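Render RNA polymerase-binding transcription factor DksA in 3D.
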Amino acid sequence: MAKATSSASRKRARTPEEVRPGFTPYKEKKGEEYMNDAQAEHFRNLLLDWKQELMEEVDRTVHHMQDEVANYPDPNDRATVEEEFALELRTRDRERKLIKKINESLTDIDSGDYGFCEVCGVEIGIRRLEARPTATLCIDCKTLDEIKERQYG
């Protein structure tokens, strides 16, 4: 019989360290200016590390696909391999778009626009940016955006 777990232990949010091993959250200092040089450098490193991981994944996919191009005489085997390739390519396409967003965020850091909502100009917030480093909207504008999307399709 399986051990029962309490609802509190099941619903506990994972810490950033659990989600991204080796990740160290930024420790804000009292009275510190938002998106100062130290914060900008923290997010630049976070984005560059993320981009590097994605690029390594792309390389692994290319090598995997080159290794797996063997001729499969059985149509079922061939179909399985082709389906796996199609799934991998869709994943890489999403990652390509994510790399583009990462590059845009790095450009925003260089220009001093990073961390501010592109709609209303309010601070997005350190914790939100650590959860989603490519975020361009504050939580309020993002919520409104999602509501409009649901209403208008």
